[in-house]
Specification:
This protein has a domain of 128 residues. The protein is 9% helix and 54% strand. It has 2 helices and 10 strands; from the N terminus they run ααββββββββββ. A hairpin with a 4-residue loop joins strand 8 and strand 9.
Amino acid sequence: MTLFNTSRLLLGVSTAALLSIAGLVNDASGTANAAGRPRAGRTVHNTVTRTGPEGRSATRDSTRTATDHGFQSSTSVTGSGGKTATRTQTGNYDPATKTWTRDANSVGPNGKTAATEAVVQKTDNGYTRDVTRTGPNGKSVTTQGSASYDASTGTLTQERTKTGPNGNSSSVSREVTVTPPQK
């Protein structure tokens, strides 16, 4: 398992974000083409309607546009009763600071809102990740994480602390060592 797969598995960081931080693609939306040039301005739109056995349906309408160093997206889901929930997201990679930022805002069918802000920054041998999620009640949960990789030992070390709206927190530390196959 590679550093990137292990990190994604354990801390939930997207592969595109990790690859962009490592400099393996041009931007964190993963929009580099085979020649290594970003696909800024490219827009993908899709509409999916699902109908259940009782005739009730839901339609999801999504648009995602690649920007110079990231993306913008919007999704709406409308149910049989006509109620709609929406989600907008932006993601941006700053090559100068090697930082990926993603903001997401959701509005439920009842008008209540929720938001997520995530910031991932490359370090000399890994990354740091800070996420704040604010729920429809206005209360927030923060997660601070980091990972470092020691290539000489094949060891990935991760730490994560989650703090709830009441100030209580929990922490997780992990160490994963990958031994290469013997030749």
